[in-house]
Structure formats: C-alpha cells, structure tokens
Structures
1.
Amino acid sequence: MDLPEPRWPRIFPTRFVCAVATLGPLGARLPAPGTWGSLAGLFYFALFFRHARWEVVFAWSVLLGYVAVAFCGEAARRLGKKDPGEVVLDEFAVMPLVFLGWRAGYAAGLADWVALLAGFGLFRLFDILKPLGISRLQRWPGGWGIVADDFAAALAACGALHLGAWLWVLAH
C-alpha cells in the first residue's frame, strides 16, 4: 500500500504527539492499555453518539480515524516501535463503529447496558485475536496499519453484535 501518511503531526512536540496517541495516562501508565482505550471509546460513543444516526457515527469515526492514523503513526515513529501497545487512540477512534445501527440491538429487546457490554467484549475479542484476515491489515505502513486493523475489528464486532441481536429475536 502506497498511501502516504499525514505529515501535519510532525509540527507538534513529541510530548504532545505521544500524549494524544496514548490518551494521556490511559495508554502510558495503566496495564492492558488497549482495553482502557476501548473503554474510553465506549464512553465516547455513549456520550456523543448513542442516539445519532449511523451516517453521523460513521463519518465522525472516519474523521477521527484519519486523526488517529496521523498521531499514532507519528508517535510510533518517535517511540521507535512499529505498533506500540501504549498507543490507544486507534481503539478509541473506532469504538463507535461497533454500534453502527445501534437501534437494531435496542429493538431486539436487549437492554442498553447488555448491548454496550457485548459490543465492547466483541471488539476486544476481534482486536486481540485478529481473525478473518484482520491481522494482515497490521502490515500496512505506519499509522495506516495501526488503525486499519482496529477499524476492521470494530466492523467485525458490529456484524457479530447484529447477528447476536438477530439470533436473540429468533430465540424469543
């Protein structure tokens, strides 16, 4: 893949770039940083997008995903690592994608907290295991590889969440 990385984060000091990419202490100081970044993304979704149309959620996720490509790639370069575990802006940015079509789960009779918890768990599962070719996306260069696998994991979790809601409706 020859898609160039955004260059604009290079103007910022390393401390700022890394603070954005790690979401401050969430990635830099806490154990299991990917889980904390995902949990922050879950709260981000719940606060800002819970009742939004899927088009709005998707558009904002793509926009923030681009920002994540820029900052995650630049942070990785400055830290001298390919995909640093402490960089969690990627998980945060894509977490709302898990809940595209959110009302479908709600209409299936699932309590809000059940759908949120299931979506969170499914995202972490797909993000950690990287099945269905998701692991190949990590090979993309720089920030693109850091974010693309999470983007795909979020969409896979979204599909699994909808499938689970559909099976729930059939069973009840």
2.
Amino acid sequence: MPTSHKNYKHALFFIIGVIATIAYRGIVVLNHYDPIWVETAWYVGTLGFAWYFWHRFQIENRRNKLISKLNLLEKTQQGQILNQEDKTALVGILKSLNASLAKWNYIIIFVSSFLAVAYAIYFDLK
C-alpha cells in the first residue's frame, strides 16, 4: 500500500475518532437543547468509536501476529541475532508505533472529557 494512501487512511480514522469524541462529550451540552441533537450525537459518537476502535484493533492485531510469528519478543529477550526479516519487521512495528496518531486521540478524549465534566458540574450546581 503506498505511503500516501496509508497516511490518508490514518488521518481519516484520526478524524473519525475526534468527531466521535466531540459528539459524545457534546451530549452534555446538547441536553439543554432539542433531544434530536442528543440522539444524533449519540449515534455519531457510538458509530464513530466503533469504527475507530475496530481500526485500532486491526492495527494492534497485525503487530501482535507479526511479533508472535517471528518470535521477536523471545529473540530479543534472549539476545539472539535478528535476521533481515526480523529487523525489517521490528523497524516496521517501531515506525508504526512512532507515527501513530492514536496518542492524539487519547489526549483529545482526556481534554474533552474533563471539559464535559466541568461543564456538567457547573450546570448541575447552578
């Protein structure tokens, strides 16, 4: 798969994760408006998270299968010399981890959750 296609795909799933996060956290605000907006945000958030986390599951599953198939964990723990296939796989796994946008989704989830809770507490105490 060409790099540009991979980057586009990763960016798409990053955006899906951000939209799902904002939709879910926005429910606390939308509760003060028309219920159709709450329902819409819930569907967008739920479907977005399902799609985003399915994508994350596939990535993690591919990495784990490759690590198991090549016994990379055992080889590195035992200090064995890695062959070219092992090195290529390990470099690919490390590049994938280093380039992942998932950490930014986690930051957005944390910040937006904090803001949603602060908003809810403010209006509940009002």
3.
Amino acid sequence: MSVDILASAKTKAVLLDAREEKEFKVSHLKNALFVGYDSFKLKETLKKLPKDKDATIVVYCSLGIRSEIIAHKLIKEGYTSVYNLYGGIFEWKNNDFKVMDTLGNTTEKIHAFNKYWSKWLTKGEKVYE
C-alpha cells in the first residue's frame, strides 16, 4: 500500500509497527501498535487484531523488508486484507506525513536503523540510538 493511500481519510486500517522497540519509541505512525520483528510473537499479536479476518491491516517498518515478513505471517493465519506499507516509515516521513513520539506529540525524529539504510530517509531528523 502506498503512503498516499494510507494517509487518505478514507483508509481505515489497523497499523502494526514491525520495527524494534527502540525504533518505535523514537517515533511511529499515529495509533500504530508495536509488534516488533526480532521480538515478534504471533499469538500475542493475534490478540491485538480484530476478530474480523477481512479487516484492513497495514504493517510497516523502516523500508518494508521486515514488515513484509510479518505481513506474510498474518496472511498465513487467514487475514485477507494485509498490506505492507511501501517504503515504510521512511517513505511516510519523506512525503511530509506526521509521526508521533511516545507522548503522542508530533516529532521530526525518525530512527534511521543504521548509516547504510538511512540514505533512504531524506526528511526529518535521523536518530540511531
């Protein structure tokens, strides 16, 4: 799913953040649920999801690699409308959409994962720890 489609007022989706907790704490999409990647626990995540397996679920990470793997796990569990956010939170921020800190305030900070992958983040303030 593109960031533009997700940002449109018409898109109602459960947002799952498939980054690590330190990344999520720096910033995340509004109302996103932390599910992690290395720490991902399928059974715990399923408890957070709607019972309706046709509900729209969008999984994101920094660029879309980790979130694609988590999305496939949800599809295997029978969810039918699971999407990977194209370009992840980096693409979201690069398109000037807001991200939130742990207090629910907007922030310019984005955890850039590492120096190599951070080249794809062109806007915002890069944070590495």
